[in-house]
Every structure is written in C-alpha cells, then in structure tokens.
Prior knowledge:
Distance between the termini: 105 Å
Oligomer: single chain
Protein name: SPIN90/Ldb17 leucine-rich domain-containing protein
InterPro entries: SPIN90/Ldb17 (IPR030125), SPIN90/Ldb17_LRD (IPR018556)
GO molecular function, one term: Arp2/3 complex binding
Low-confidence stretches: 1-9, 214-218, 373-399, 421-439, 489-499
Number of strands: 6
Pfam family, one: SPIN90_LRD
Number of helices: 23
Structural class: mainly alpha
Amino acid sequence: MADFEEASYTHEExxxxxxxxxxxxxxxxxxxxxxxxxxxxxxxxLTTRLRDHLYESQEEIATCTRMLLASDLFQANKDYxxxxxxxxxxxxxxxxxxxxxxxxxxxxxxxxxxxxxxxVDEACFPRLLELINGCRDQDPGLHRLLLQLMYExxxxxxxxxxxxTMVDDEFVHYLFALIEELSDDAHDPYHYPTIRVLxxxxxxxxxxxxxxxxxxxxxxxxxxxxVKCLSLHGASFRTFGENxxxxxxxxxxxxxxxxILKLLYLLFTTKATYEYFYTNDLRVLxxxxxxxxxxxxxxxxxxxxxxxxxxxxxxxxxQLSQPPHYKQDEILRVLSILRGSHNxxxxxxxxxxxxxxxxxxxxxxxxxxxxxxxxxxxxxVARRFLGMSLSRSQTASxxxxxxxxxxxxxxxxxTPSRSGDGGDVATDDENVTIATRPxxxxxxxxxxxxxxxxxxxxxxxxxxxxxxxxPPPRRWxxxxxxxxxxxxxxxETVPEQEA
Length: 499
C-alpha cells in the first residue's frame, strides 16, 4: 500500500514538473532561429511526455497547444514556427510527437485561415493520407485528429488534382466501413469526423470535374470515388446515408449543409444510386427540405437554390416518385409560396428561384396533381395566373454539377431562421423538427355585463378592479313531506310456454 501511495505521489510530482517546464519553455525569449528550433523541440518533447502521463488526453494536449499559440515565442515568430511545424509533419513518424504537431496545425489553422492553404501548397494532403492509412488501429486519438485536420484543410482550400489522384478506392472503402462498424453508437468520436471527410472529398471531386480538361490528358477524367463506392457497394454502407440525413436535420452551419446537399444531388442524379437510401429516410429528408425551404430567410438565396436543385431529382428519380405519394399537398403549397404569389411574408421570387420551382413542378406526379385536366384552357389560365408562365427554354434542364459545386460558404457561419425566436419547435415521430405557430393571446376579461359596465373603485388614487357580485343566497322554505306509497316488490313473471 505504501508503495502505491509513493508511486501515485511521484506521478503527480512528475506531472507538475512537466507543466512547470512547459510554461518555462513557451515563456523563453528566442533571439535566433537556432533558439526557436530548440524551444520547439522542447515543446514537442514535453507535450509528448504529458500525453504519455495522462493516457493520451486530448484536452491536455490542446492545453499545451494553446499555451504555445498564446506565447510570445509563437506570436513574434509566426511564419518561421509554422514553417518548422509543417516540415515536422512531413518528416516525423512517431505517434507521440505527431500528436502534438497535428494538434498545433489544427488549432492554428482554425484561428488563421491562411494556414490551411499554405499546408496544401506544402503537399500536406498526401502526407495526411499516408498517416491516416498508417495508424488505423495503432493510435485512435491520433487517427481521429488526422481526420479532423484533413477535413478542415480540405474544406478551406481547393486541393490539387494530383492530390486527389492519390485517394484510391481502398481508402474510401475503409472510411465507409469504419462508419458501418460504429453504427451502434452515433456519439462515437470517430463517427462524424469520418463522415465529414467523405463529404469534403466529394466536394473536391465536384470542383475538379468543373475544371477545363487538361489538353495533355483529355481522355482521363477524374473519377469521383465516393459516388463510385456507393454505386458499387451502396447496399453495404447504408449507415452513412442514414447519418447524413440525420446530420442535415440537426446541422445549423451553412457550409456543412451545402456539403451534404452536394452529395445528395450527385446520388439522386446518378442512376446506380437512385435507390441507395431507404424509403423512410427519403421521407425524413423531404420533411427536412420542406421545413428549411420555408424557414430560410430571403438573404440565403444560394442555399435555397441548392435545396431546390436537390428536391427535383429526389421527387423524380427515387422511391418517392412511386405512389402513394408522400406530402404531395405540402409540396404544392411550398412551390406556390416560393413563387411569391399571394404571400406578403416572402419577397418577390428571383429568376433562378422561379426557374427551379417550375422545374420541380414539372415532376410527373406533381404536375398531374396541379392540373388534372392537362391541356384545357382553364388549366392554362390557372397556370399563368399562378406564375407558371415560363417558356420551355427557360424551364429546360440547365442545372449542372458546376451550379451545385460552385455554392460555397465560409466555415462557421450559422444558417439564420425566418421564424427567429417567435415560434415553438416540435418533433414528430420521424425526428423532423417542425416549426409551429406561436400561441394566440388569451382573450381579455370583459369590462361589462350585458351592456352594464362594472363599477370601479379607486384605492390610493388608482383603479382597483372588483370581481362581479356573488348571486344572492338561495332561499330555503318549508318543504312539504310527500307520503309515498309502499313500493311493491317487482314480481318476475315467467311467460307460459305454448303447449
């Protein structure tokens, strides 16, 4: 027992000494590059030792990182320190030092948007790819941090085509399989970092596909390996689809909503993935899209356009195109409102919104619901009266991957709500949040009874309301005693049987 207490005391003493040395390290004054290099090596060593003492506690490693970022050592030599840390990422192989280096790059990049483009220029993406593949089952904490760094870097800066060509089918298949293994625990820390990496890689593929092809290699287009994997093995990776719909339902960050919508657009416009999602998940998705289209403020025009671009193939190509048609009346109502007709709460619709709304209304089962007597004069008049008077050339399919891929938003920007704080929020059985109307105020207490106003009394110069007078007491008189005849017993008669 004494040995255990002595070991525990020694452990705490060593930890305090390490924190003291770390504070001394980041507070040291460095006059030359050599002294800066020495300080950085000391910081990495002390952070690694603290990591080993605290059993890879990510919170403590983040504390070490913040101490360096806030120190004069970093603030006075930002450019040089960043250069050295990036080179350390490219050269280091040990898990402990890598954990400290990756943590520093991640936190610094989230604070300074110039850091991630610099990392892309220094070929950090292929290195991250190599490290993620190399420490799959060896160091879960480092593996998760590497995924987060890849996501943040890739969503801030466009990757080079040479970088994307290094992503192979085996890597993408591994990420999908990792999500499938964690399907029983949606709160697992691996869950959403892995999903986000797949989403941002899909966006990078979309951006690369919009570039003008290289004349030297005109016959070698870049394959979107995310869509390819789901096209070939979608039935084995259903959990990913369930999770991105759940994430879209809950997410308020605009940039992440756009990442999800971009992948949904490709899945609903690729024949091999028309039926990748379960029907119930598609219904939840439709509920989410309807809610967000109604809730988005007018200034979020590009996000509304993206939702409409996804809505058309969702209704036209998936299981929702088959009867019984889900939320048909609600869809018609949303389309009518988005046209801007007869609704003072929505600004007049722009040309792109009108074109996209009209395209959705051309989905076969939506069009049949709008005009039962197709081709009749009355239907045509009604169509033009409701604003559906665009020509065929205006309603032609001019939507392309580039329209969807080009929509961007700065990370961290939250999507505002049209309803603001004025309404309550209810959740139905399908986990779809639905905005409800605010409760009406209670009616005022009447100030008169049958036209006769109540008398008001004044107390201390102010009016005091008095309750209505109580009714007069009931008058009780003599009650006559009524003699009742004795009750005859009920005789049960048995009907005689016919002879």
